[in-house]
DNA sequence: AGAAGGACCAGTGGTCCGTA
DNA sequence: AGAAGGACCAGTGGTCCGTA
């Protein structure tokens, strides 16, 4: 029905058209519009429909609020890379069998193109996304957080300091459907390295690209230099994140924290020994494997 | 079976005996003991048993951790008030019909004595608790938080900055069964006033005691001076809380935040008008009533 | 009636695993 | 095979309301 151009915008170098959602209700309501919840979009959110047993036993009165901005603001996204990227030819990017019209037409359940390891400044081709684009997503989330914070402050609501579910929901609402929580959490530490030591990050990217490694391998390799950086702050990775304004809005990934902790106890055998003897810790030896390895 | 002296300790001026829980396992496990979860205590936590439909469909692997300290440390609680309180007679406090032995004997489901409005330094009698005791509970929570934080840091876990569920659980575990979340949240703003302007807080207590007001009335009266204090920080009550080390560990109560927000929009009619015209807020006019009034 | 707190609920952080 | 993300789950913040 409505031109669901949403998914098409996830394309690198294809977001020419400004995002416009739910234009219809803009300017209609004022206070009411700002507070109203669903607006009819996403009617079946939280549709698990299996855990809860039908009726909600007690109908407590709960005022729900929701953020729900009217996004008249064209979401000044101004295609990423357009400023910093070389090679700006916009057409022959889509060289596969799936044509542009084909994509925006059907309901084929699009996903983002997978990432590949690119050098700084390099544009990914052939249905791939590059790492500059990945990092740009983090900057976008930061902007979304700022907007969410502004609304919260204005309304006197509790103001998030981190990129929370609320921010991801907001991103969806303003049309950034290509941003989602699992993805952003997955690569946070890669972004952290990029922010904390861009030189090292760039070198790692070049090395892994040259070796033909895949994204997963590069991602894993990002842990080590971060642990090294944390060493200068006695392995307190939270302190490292919090000290940097662009990082402080991101939760420290569990595995990174564990690695730093492990490195700390390994680097201080006396402390580790005393700790075990005193039975106050030892948790550094928990498995760090799991599906993330 | 075991002397469940837990509840008895909630008595003001009765906590002579040091808290000792689960002594048996102390010193046995070291690392294992520090990580182990339930230790058999509180077997049926989260016993709602109505919402979830029996089997948990997918048996995902989830490593649960838990804090679970071995509390050999006698929980240096050193009865509150014993230092600052006048009138230290310990015996005729219990002048009701329920005797000391009667209380610790049966399974009568004890609760804390209700609070009454007391002057600073005044000891409550006749099965009542005073406000100095109330405020002392907040200090205790702070100590518990410090301990939880120490353990978390030592284990490399995520470290809470606020009094969270984890802290309340810890309090229970080390025997402070008289601390619970609803109570602490209920009176946070009263404690805030005590911390931010002890003079004003004391004056309010004296006034309300003299007038014979009940605790609920006093509690409600605590909001107003706090809003006034927030005014000096442009009604940013979060900033006020965060600026004070003893307050920053407490979540700002919803109603207090709403009242400050309301006061802000009332104090700046031009801003409020512009805001309504521009349809970006107006939420200040939400109901502040509810069951808290 | 006034008050303490067990227990509930909506929405969170975290990430698994069915999907493509 | 490698990767993106819908959807799930355990435990959170918040506080209602059955209890005493």
Question: Which labels suit this protein?
Answer:
disordered N terminus, DNA-binding, homodimer, 293 residues, mainly alpha
What do you see in this structure?
Chains A, B: It is found in: Nucleus. Chains A, B: Belongs to the FLO/LFY family. Chain A is mainly alpha-helical. The first copy, chain A, is 41% helix and 0% strand. Chain A contains twelve helices and no strands. In chain A, helix 3 packs across helix 4 and helix 9 crosses helix 11. The N terminus of chain A is likely disordered. The structure holds a DNA duplex (20 and 20 nucleotides).
Find the structural class of chain A using helix and strand composition.
mainly alpha
- Number of E-type strands of chain A: 0
Order of helices and strands of chain A: HHHHHHHHHHHH
- Poorly predicted segments of chain A: 1-106, 279-286
Provide a quick synopsis of the model:
Chains A, B: It is found in: Nucleus. The structure is a homodimer of 293-residue chains. With 293 residues, chain A is mostly helical.
